[in-house]
Amino acid sequence: MKKNVIKLMMVSGLLLTFLGCSDDFVNENPESGFQNINQLGEAASNNPDIVTGFIEGVYSTMYTTGTGGTGGHDDFGHKAYDLFADFLSSDVALSVSTYGWYRASITEMQCTEDFTFLDNYQVWRHYYRMIRAANTVIETLGGDEADPENLDNRATLGQALAMRAHSYWYLTQYMQNDYNPSQEILPIYRTVTNVGVGKSTAAEVFALIESDLNRAIVLLDVYNRPTKTQVNKEVAQAMLAYAIASQRDVSRMGEVVALCDAVISGTGATVMTAAEVTGGFNNVATPGWIWGVDLNGDIGLRLVSWWGQMDAFSYSYAWAGDAKAIDQNLYDAIPADDARKAQFFPGSGYYNLMPLDKFYDASRIIGGPSGSVVADYVYMRIAEMHILKAEALAKMGQDGPARTALREVLDQRLPDTSYLNGLSGAALLAEIHLQTRIEFWGEGKTYLSIKRNQTSTGVRGSNHLSFVGESFMHNDERLTFEIPELEIQSNVFINEQN
Fold this sequence. Notes:
Residues 1-22 form the signal peptide. It comes from Winogradskyella ouciana. The N and C termini lie far apart (50 Å). By secondary structure, the protein is mainly alpha-helical. The chain has 18 helices and six strands.
């Protein structure tokens, strides 16, 4: 067993102990043997490993089952909501449904119109649970404005601020129909508390996101992370690029470009090659991955996992009767000589257009080993920064540089990218969005691009089970989750009308 895995299991157990059956992280006036925030802070100043353990627990929450508050087989952390988003974007088709996961609630878009569906609660609870975990670390180290002298504590505070911002940003994307800075959308919690608060405006939430990320970038300046699981300076910069871009202010697109350039140069990461994009997307060591997690048997994920829903070469629903495939129309839009076309099975029958050569367990055995998941999770790739940079440049009217940025990815995918020379303005932006859909299929990015670019989903192809031939605008109520019934019942400051 790897040393870091042992440590992660230990701190995750401690974190879950603090969580208990409710979401109470730390009892600020404990009557038991648990430490309170002040005691933890005092201990952390002398022994940084204490609070470092807590930030590792934050990361483990990203892939722990049940963090959305249910026992459902679609409740497995951050990647669960990447998959929700992929279905809502229409780029992932539920082409066969035997067990019913995602059928009515997500692919038929019932949950996004009915706050009593638990899918809304899962999204809400997971990200607020992440926020609460991050707040535990932040408060332990002295709060948002703290400036620890110890380098380890500085890095830990930076990671916690980044992770809080990451969770709030995903909530803005999933819970607001369309970006409107004056609309009240989410409660803001900056400390560990059990007291509910009312909603803040989108402008206020984004101000916190940007403040957290800018502070994180400073605190992480000299931090060398031990693995790609941790957020470093460049990942925080990438998060900030996304946050600014999603506010759609053209006057700030230069900031997005500068941040993307900083990530590209700072990581030294290379765009995945044509061979790598059909290499399984199962290894965090892949040079093109800049943030992800090394899953292994000691962590113990099995059927209830992203791989357990998506991969026919794992012991999974995708093998057993719930097929997930690329939308037929999107597949048809991929040129025959594009390396990414080979990611999808072109035959007929059950496996038609499934990603048999994009996402797969290394065993390459249909139905796979029934043991623990060992294929890794990808959260962010360097290709995202090249394509987001291209998008920002195009919005600034800099078509030539935008084409150059896009070619950084497409030259690894196509034998000839000269067709880009004829694209400018709206046509170039449309191509960038299409390439986002193709390049990041199944990675949870298309939904974010739809919202960011105020465009529509693709027209659902013939291999969907519902809404065939239909598309949905970015601000369609059916693409956005509802504040869940349980939050409305427990928080007196929020009701269905406000």
